[in-house]
Design a protein that fits this description.
Blueprint: H1 4-57, H2 63-78, H3 95-106, H4 119-162, H5 167-197, H6 203-214, H7 233-265
Helix pairs in contact: 3-7, 4-5, 4-7, 5-6, 5-7
Amino acid sequence: VGGKRPVFIRVNALSCLVLCYLLFVVLGGVAFTAVEKPVERELRAEVEELRRSFLQENPCVQESGLRELLGKALSAHRSDVAVLKADAEERSYDFTSSLYFVIVTLTTMGSDSYTPKSYEAKLFCIFYCILGIPLTLFLLTLLSNILLPVVTHAPVHHLCTYWGMPYARAALVHAGLLSALVLSLLFLLPALLVCAAEPDWSFLDALFFCFIVLSTVGQGGDSLGRTWAPRNLNRVILESEKLVQYKYVLSLDLLTALGLLFQKLCPL
C-alpha cells in the first residue's frame, strides 16, 4: 500500500496540473475575446460605413466588382505585395526582403509578411530550413555555452571572493542585476530603437514586437523594414542581427542564471 501511494499522488498531481493548464488556456481565450471583440465590431462597422458611402457616391460601381477588387487587394496585402503604384518601389520583394525572411526563419521567429509564394520557393524553404535551423541552433548553443561562464559563474565568484558575500546572496544579487540588465537590453532599449526606425509605431507597439519576437510566437502582423527602400540593406541586416543576438544569447543566459539561482536557493 505504501508503494502505491506515491504513484497515486503523482497521477493525481499530473491530472490536476493538466486540468489547471486547460483552464488557463480557456481563460486566456475568454480574456482575449472579451477585450478584442468590441474593437473588431467597431472596426467592422467603420469599414461597412465606408463601403456603403462609397457605393452611394459612385452608383456606377457594382457591389460584386468592388467586393472582388477588395478581396484581391487584401490578399495581395497579406502577401506584402504593393497594391498602389506609390508603394510599389518600397514594398517590392527584393533581396533585402528575402534576406530578412531567411534570418527570421532560421531563428524560428517566423515572418508574417515575407513568405514564399511559388511552389519552388516553398519546397526550397522546407529543405533549407531542415538543414539551416538545426545548424543555427547548434551554433547559437555553442556561443551561449562559451558566454555562460563569463555571464553567470564569473560574477558570482567575484562577489563571493572580493565582496565576501555568501554564495546564496551573491547568486541572488547577480540574478537581480542580470535581470535588470537583460530587461533593459532585450525590451526597453530595442523598443526605443524600433520606435526610431518605425515612426508610425508607438512605444507599446515596439515593446510588444520585442516581446513576441523573443518568445518566438511570430511578429503579430508587424515587421521591421516594410517601408524601407531597397538601398537600406545594411539597416535591415543590422536590425536582424540585433534580433538574433537579443533572442538567443541574452535570453539563454538569463534563463540559465535564474535556473542556477533557484537551484541554489531551494535547499535553504
